[in-house]
Write a structure and sequence with these properties.
alpha/beta, Rossmann fold, eight-stranded mixed sheet, two-stranded antiparallel ribbon, 40% helix
């Protein structure tokens, strides 16, 4: 039996049309919350689509309306990846946020994975959205560190594959600094996208007004929050933020060779959100 109603939508945004998949609870299910999902970067987005859908279905069964957006230049949204900028992606999220919040009468959370989690936190820091909670999956702690690794590993893969590498990470950085779009691992990358992400350090963002549910997956037992994210959590809590952070066992599905699922991540996330909004609605006995 289906646990959700699923529909596709296109939204008008400054950079073109945004593709959104909307998951809604069945009529018999009490509406308790809504969530806007921001996907990760590059191939991580493709690897994670299955998990995003699994979580959206679980949220819908628990009374959540979920919007999954493709940012400009990605997926089924209009525009080329080379045109994508950090500012443009922030604008895209705000468009999707305004659309979702206008459709529902429940509290709405902002939910992101990896770079999408960092983007979600950046939007809260910039006061571009006021979510009832911030759900962060495996958040990137530093935009600059992420792109340093991305540029370096992409070149390594090209060398291992026998192709001629376009240059090392330092050369790629110089090309970006000169305002050039570069191609890395099949993706054309805009210098304004990298510059915008480079400026974001997760621990330095002000998210104190928004409760945070942070979940990571770890293959070993017992699972543990990564050191960089643990440091971020400590700094956020010191600044007065309410952070529920937990690691669960599971595969690194966003980079795994085969499409993978992390059911414990879905269960832990659904439980945390359902507990929060069921209590607010007076539905917990």
């Amino acid at each position: 039996m289906s646990e959700a109603k699923v529909s596709g939508h296109f939204l008008d945004a400054p950079g073109g049309r945004l593709a959104v998949v909307l998951w809604e609870p069945l009529e018999r299910v009490t509406r308790r919350f809504a969530a806007l999902y921001i996907p990760p970067f590059g191939d991580e987005m493709n690897k994670s689509r299955r998990m995003a859908a699994v979580q959206a279905r679980a949220f819908a069964a628990a009374g959540g309306t979920v919007a999954i957006v493709d940012l400009g230049g990605t997926g089924d949204s209009s525009g080329d990846h080379a045109e994508a900028t950090w500012e443009g992606w922030r604008d895209d999220v705000v468009v999707a946020w305004d659309w979702l919040t206008s459709r529902v009468e429940t509290p709405v959370v902002l939910w992101g994975l990896r770079m999408g989690a960092m983007l979600a936190a950046d939007i809260v820091d910039k006061s571009r959205a006021d979510p009832a909670a911030l759900v962060l999956w495996q958040p990137i702690a530093s935009g600059r560190a992420f792109f340093n690794q991305f540029l370096r590993l992409a070149n390594l893969r090209q060398r291992m594959g026998g192709a001629v590498a376009p240059g090392d990470a330092q050369s790629a950085r110089k090309a970006l600094a000169a305002g050039n779009v570069i191609e890395v691992a099949g993706y054309e990358v805009n210098p304004r996208l990298v510059a915008g992400a480079d400026a974001v350090e997760l621990a330095q963002l002000d998210i104190a007004r928004c409760p945070v549910v942070l979940r990571e997956v770890f293959p070993d037992d017992p699972p543990a929050i990564s050191p960089f994210v643990a440091n971020t959590v400590r700094q956020w809590r010191s600044a007065g933020a309410q952070v529920d952070a937990e690691a669960v066992n599971g595969p690194s599905f966003w980079i795994s060779q085969e499409i993978a699922e992390a059911p414990r991540l879905v269960d832990a996330t659904t439980s945390a959100i359902l507990k929060r909004f069921s209590r607010q609605a007076g539905l917990v006995s």
